[in-house]
Amino acid sequence: MPGPALLTPPSSELPTPKATAAELTRLAHSITAPHLLEAVARHPNTPATLLGELAARYPEAVLDNPALALLRLAHGQQIRMWTGLAVSRLAAVDAAPEWVQELAMRHPEPQARWAVAGRARLSQERLKQLAGRREWQLRAAVAQHPDLTADLIEQLSTDAEYSVRLSLSARPGLPPEVLNRLRTDPHPLIRRRLQMGV
């Protein structure tokens, strides 16, 4: 029969304001309650490596952490080592700052960049950066973005990858010269989409 210590459930209290990094790490690795893990993700003493672990499940809480900006300066190398999943979850949050998008764009795992491309709001600089990437999936995602400039629409309409042109062909209100070019595109799927009006 187990002793009383084994029957005692782990503490369900929120971490104290003075909790140390070591205490927060122990707590995060010994609990499963979402509200406690979110509290750890928001705690200013949570170390950067632990925030990276929590970011995949609690990206908003990590972004709300008041020490995140300081951690970025003091422990930038650790933050750059966060997984592609963690960075992609952070980059997908509408309130994510520009530096998180930049972190995602530089991440070696492509899912981080895909999260940026899928955002509803992107600056013109970011759209231009994505449109110039080697991965055709990113350029195809940009082709669907509602805030494209005429220059980017023109650029994407002559993309070497047909999937990018196909994605662009689904946009309403294409300029007449782009529409005419796509109607005579070498790829039959693009021509057919425009003929069918879908």
Q: How is the secondary structure organized here?
A:
Elements: H1 4-7, H2 21-30, H3 34-42, H4 48-55, H5 59-64, H6 68-74, H7 76-80, H8 84-91, H9 98-106, H10 110-117, H11 124-131, H12 136-143, H13 150-157, H14 162-169, H15 176-183, H16 188-196
State mean pLDDT (0 to 100 scale).
92
Fraction of residues in helices? 55-70%
The major pleated sheet works out as: none
CA radius of gyration is 23 Å
Distance between the termini: 69 Å
* Total count of strands: 0
Taken from the alpha-carbon principal axes, the silhouette is: elongated
Instruction: Determine the strand fraction and express it as a percent band.
Output: under 5%
| Uncertain stretches | 1-10
Structural class: mainly alpha
By DSSP (H or I, 4+ residues per run), the number of helices equals 16
Order of helices and strands: HHHHHHHHHHHHHHHH
Characterise this structure.
This protein has 198 residues and is mainly α. 62% of the residues lie in helices and 0% in strands. The protein contains 16 helices and no strands. Helix 3 packs across helix 4 (48-55), helix 8 (84-91) runs antiparallel to helix 9 (98-106) and helix 12 packs parallel to helix 14 (162-169). The longest helix has 10 residues, at 21-30. The model is unreliable at 1-10 (pLDDT under 50).
In short:
62% of the residues lie in helices and 0% in strands. By secondary structure, the chain is mainly α.
Give keywords.
single chain; 198 residues; mainly alpha; 16 helices; 62% helix
